[in-house]
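Handout, page 2. Input:
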Amino acid sequence: MPFRANHLSHFKTLASIRAPRVTRALAWMLVATIVGCILFMIFVPWVQTAPGTGAVIALDPRDRVQNITALVPGRIEQWYVTDGSLVKRGDPIARISDNDPNLLDRLRAERAQADVEIMAAQQAMRVAQLDVSRMETLYREGLAPRRDYELAQIKVSDYAAKVAQARAERTRVDVSLNRQSVQMIRAPRAGRVLRIQGGDNATMVSAGDIVATFAPEQSQRVVELYVDGRDVPLIEIGRRVRLEFEGWPAIQFSGWPSVAQGMFDGKVRAIDVSASANGLFRVIVEPAADRPAWPQEPYVRLGAKVRGWVLMDTVSVGFELWRQLNDFPLQFQRPGNVPDASATNATDANANSNAK
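Output:
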């Protein structure tokens, strides 16, 4: 016999049983939560990002930390700076003296001797040239043999060789004098001496030895991020990047840039074509001209650690969860496909609202 609703009236105890109010409330809350989560995953946008870590560097290699080396061998005679000293272009840093204190005097004497030898050889060559002219006249008139004429020409060539040899010796001495003139090590440009590598006055150095570490004061800063190779093919020059600098208070929400606080904007300037030694690809990020400027020194110095997120396409939260669970790569637009206008607008709106 089929069950009907009026049959329940014959069972008074069963009819009196009702689910507790709390249970019914929890059931409705659970259903509402499930429906809300489904709607949330379907309709709420999520900006995909390619994360990376790196540091602040100077774009121009001349603006990076550099080593100051000794140009000549010798002994460090005097230091003019200490660790942390500010210097201008051409300011002395250290003086190097040769082991032979009389070296400069001997070099000057050798140069003077070379000058005298050059003058003597030139005078002798002029006299020999006159002899050649006389011998040529006598030879044409038949008053001198051909051999005497040829010997006079050979003598001129000998004196010319002596002049050239004396000039070469003078050039060698000039080179030695010029090298000794660079015993004074000077700052290549305005900046700060970070660390003194040399020792006291008894320290011997060779040409090319590092005596100090120097950092220029003014530099154009960029950020180098190291990104996983799976995400690099999807990164293009000009992509927006969100940056979190070390020591700068920030709150980051990867998928919602508009909610993040304390973040700074940049854009991709260059991408390395080959992987680095750590197996990751380097991405150079420069400041975005239409966004707030990055913190200046001393808040963010060269070498400061940075975390970055390259902003990619906008997808739904559900798609992003599915991608993360399956460890799939980021979503990207295939060539020839028209990008979703709503996704593009959502990404721009998030970035613009955060900038405001």
